[in-house]
Amino acid sequence: MISIYNTLTKSTEAVLPTEQRPIGIYTCGPTVYRRSHIGNLRSYLMSDWLRRAIESTGAEVLHVKNITDVGHMRQERVDLGEDKILAAAVAEGRSPKEIADEYTAMFFSDEKALGIIAADVYPRATEHIPEMLSMIQKLIVDGFAYVVDGAVYFSVDAFGGYGKLSGNLASQLLPKDPSEIDSRKRDPRDFALWKEAEPGRSMKWDSPWGQGFPGWHIECSAMAGRYLGSSIDVHTGGVDNIFPHHECEIAQSESFYQQRHTNVWLHGQHLLVNGVKMAKSSQNDYTLDQLQQRGFQPLAFRYLCATVRYRTRLNFTLRSLDAAQKGWLRFRKTINSLDLSSDIVAKDRDQMRRYRSQFAAHIQNDLDLPLALSTAWAVTKSEISGAGKLALIEEFDKVLGLELTSYDEGAFPEEVLELARHRFDARRDGNWIGA
Ligand code: AMP
Ligand code: ZN
Whose CA is nearest to atom 14 of ligand 1? Predict the structure, then answer.
């Protein structure tokens, strides 16, 4: 049984399936107007470890990770800025679809390089407009939303629980600059579910209120509802998603379904650079390919993330990544040079059981990857036979996802690889003298 710190209740809670069905995870996925940076990827590593941890208990998972390809505004507040995808399309002189497709493909390849298991569904916002429209229509009918000109706003006042996730009080939610308040809103806290298309806008859809496009928050409510139903077991994202995005998602979904939207809210802390959140807009971001160009392997970044708990900020430096890469390569080398000549014996099995339950306890305790990793290191230094160590590390690696038992061929010259292959074959065949 996995326990996770729940942002909503501020306590650690068990993740339990509510019915005879897989545990549903919804992860707020990338906005595909640029390549994800490694800060974004840190948050997807967290949800991958969650998935693997749940599966290691024998439970099944249904993982949904959306692709935001419209409606995410440049500013934090939907009513101010311009659409990130459209802005990128204009800047690059290409169509929004070309932009979205290119960066979606890059996202998939970055996830793969980091050993992130593909989600079961990657719904794209632009392919779920009908679901969004019917959700908005019901919210209007039920008195939770109202239409002004071609736009639809959610009425925060109509939903009693606004602020329960972020802890923001009504007074804190008002913009500091009165000129930022959209005069069409009945209450400055209200947010857009649907916006009318500005003249010349290319990404727009017909709606009962004229041509327009959805707000970012309604996308996730609609796609989560479509694939996971009225209630989600675990919903994940970075801490910057807590407000306004997830607060608004709760308001929409709970008003729509009239029941608790998400059981456990899991939020990952940020990756920083010199103490500042990594972000494209701060120009302090690194992408995975930039790290590769500097000689780093993607899994070295995964290893680095595993050395810090997800609720702790992680200050990124190339030096710490270098140390992580060395640690990761040393681990793999240690496993690769194990003496596999003797079988697993009864004495081994006792110790293996102890390490196995230690490892599981760390993982199940709010994903304590650093302690789980140190248990894995302790195994390599233990009295267990080589074959026993290999078997245990193979098991642990199903959760860690660090490819600890495979050998990295690319890093060595061909003659060395040739020798290594001969030695591997000899060991496999029990030819110890030859090996
Ligand atoms: P975006 O593509 O901007 O919508 O962000 C995708 C995910 O990355 C969201 O869950 C964000 O909360 C998360 N995120 C953004 N910046 C960082 C960062 N510096 N460190 C960790 N996660 C981040
Ligand atoms: Zn979302």
Answer: 40
Looking from the CA of 342 toward its CB, the CA atoms found within 13 Å total: 10
Write phi, then psi, for 2 (nearest 5 degrees).
-95, 135
Closest-approaching ligand to the CA atom of 286: 1
pLDDT, tens digit (0-9, with 9 covering 90-100), for 206-216:
999 999 999 99
Each residue's pLDDT tens digit, 218-266: 999 999 999 999 999 999 999 999 999 999 999 999 999 999 999 999 9
The pLDDT, as a whole number, for residue 77 is 41
How far, in Å, is the centroid of ligand 2 from the Cα of 325? Answer: 32
Residue 270 Cα to ligand 1 middle (Å): 8
CA dist 410 → 248, 264, 279, 407, 435 (Å): 47, 41, 31, 9, 22
Which of 38, 43, 65 is the pocket-test mutation for ligand 1 (most atoms within 8 Å of CB)?
43
Spatial distance between the Cα atoms of 20 and 22, rounded to a whole number of angstroms: 7
Instruction: Indicate the pTM of the whole model.
Output: 0.91
Q: What's phi and psi for 74, nearest 5 deg?
A: -60, -40
**In testing the pocket of ligand 1, which one of 40, 75, 235 has its CB within 8 Å of the most ligand atoms?**
40
Tokens matching residue 228? 């996971």
- Position in ligand 1 atom list of the atom nearest CA 278: 19
pLDDT, tens only, 158-172: 999 999 999 987 666
